[in-house]
Amino acid sequence: MDKIIIEGRRPLSGLASISGAKNAALPLMAAAILAPLTLENVPNLRDLATMGRLLTHMGGRVERDGGRMELDLSRLSRPEAPYEMVKTMRASALVLGPLLARHGRAKVSLPGGCAIGRRPIDRHLKALEAMGAVINLSGGYVEARAPSGGLRGANIHFDDITVTGTENLMLAAVLAKGRTTITGAAREPEVTDTARALLAMGARISGLDTDQLTIDGVTELEPALHQVMPDRIEAGTLIVAGALTGGRIVLKGPPHAALAAVYDKFREAGVSLTENDDELIVEAGPAVKSIDVTTRPYPGFPTDMQAQFMALMTIGNGVSLIHETIFENRFMHVSELVRLGADITLEGPTAMVRGVHRLSGAPMMATDLRASASLILAALTARGRSEISRVYHLDRGYDRLDEKLAALGADIRRLPE
Ligand code: EPU
Description:
- 31% of the residues lie in helices and 26% in strands.
- The protein is α/β, with parallel strands linked by helices.
- It has two domains: 2-19 and 230-416, UDP-n-acetylglucosamine1-carboxyvinyl-transferase, Chain; 22-227, Enolpyruvate transferase domain (UDP-n-acetylglucosamine1-carboxyvinyl-transferase, Chain, Alpha-beta prism), CATH 3.65.10.
- The chain is elongated and about 65 Å long.
């Protein structure tokens, strides 16, 4: 296990490239259960290594060479996701839909809770049942079987949006018999990226980027090549780094369109953002303006940026109210930020952040992926030294964030704990 040591208050400048998106790469890897898939622009993340191990465990071949990953599960022999793998990464549940579609059966451990909330997969299961799957829960596992003749198209409505639920269902429906419609579908850009790869494999999907997807099942998919979209959350995280350190940084390759709501909030907070083709110039304003933020499904402000945005608001010029509407317990970073001198009070799903003049370095403990990023960001602006332990959470979803920050001029080091 590593820890990260930061000496704060170094102005950042220079260029950082945005890596491929974790939350696109995960469903894309699961899509390889349906037909061989080669992915490019694959980030180097622990969660992807976990998904790779899971697919290998099933009998698949996963080969990585830099940002290129070749996946072939033609010889899939063991359609199961054991507890040891699922417990470290909930997105393992994404294999359920494609396994049922391609293999007719699947055994996937129930994910259980995690640091940010309960996070059940009941909506995934209900939707698969509507397609004819027979599902039993026993011994902590979901045991699912497709009906004889395979999954059948169905009209599915999600009352509440689920991102991986939409992806799971789409991955099942592309090989089902007949038409599936999904209303109340998640519109996250990563869902669209997954759909684009499926289209390249020969799937028939319409309604991309909307909350209504129509999928006409085909009997077989073909091998394809797909570029993973850039990570909008990594881009947002680096924008906070630039804004908090009074610097001027250039990001190469952020997905501007997917970041519209995030850019709006940064501009409202006084950060100057200039969009040039595939670059974004980030310049801190004279002061951080305190503004309110409510997390929403896409195209709203993403919950995955809430913790990092809160780090920015800690040094705002007034009071900021941050409402978390997606997860019930995604405030693990608050008590750690308070250790740096931040003034934050929590009431239910709302954090009230009163801006302080300055934070000061302190030892902190990372509790989940985005919380780790938030603590690192706050430490960049704090006076003195901070030490953040348990950074393995960070490596689950950020491709060498510490190295990227060091290259921008941050005084940040990684040491074994
Ligand atoms: N929910 C249910 N039942 C379900 C599914 C979801 O109650 O069957 C609830 C969840 O507990 C949560 C809400 O619905 O309160 C939304 O959950 P959703 O299913 O949309 O989340 P997810 O698909 O599990 C993905 C991302 C998360 C991101 C959320 C929301 C991946 C691999 N994960 O999770 O990413 O926060 O969507 O946008 O795509 C992260 O990257 O740090 C991360 C947690």
